[in-house]
Design a protein that fits this description.
Helix content: 55-70%
Order of helices and strands: HHHHH
Largest sheet: none
Number of strands: 0
Number of helices: 5
Length: 88
């Protein structure tokens, strides 16, 4: 078996990941503070960022409102990335 190292995404990559997952859910990334979300997700993996978007969408749906920055930031705050829980 081979072991591969995959580093965490850099800020520009996290921004792209947010754009991809927001677009995938039929929302316009320009309506969100993607730069602020990028800063708030230092240490997050791509899959953790995807989960942030999904969790925020569920919260918005539960509230009966459209997804906004507050939902996304709340989901970021509720998520503890593996880079922190498994810190060496």
């Amino acid at each position: 078996d081979e072991i591969f190292f995959v580093d965490l995404p850099a800020p520009s990559e996290r921004k792209t990941i947010f754009d991809i997952h927001i677009k995938k859910r039929r929302r316009d990334p320009a309506k969100f503070d993607v730069d602020g979300l990028t800063e708030a997700t230092d240490g997050f993996s791509g899959s953790e960022i995807e989960q942030v978007v999904i969790s925020a969408l569920y919260d918005a749906f539960d509230e009966g409102v459209e997804l906004n920055d507050q939902h996304l930031l709340r989901a970021v705050g509720d998520t503890v990335p593996l880079s922190r829980t498994m810190h060496e």
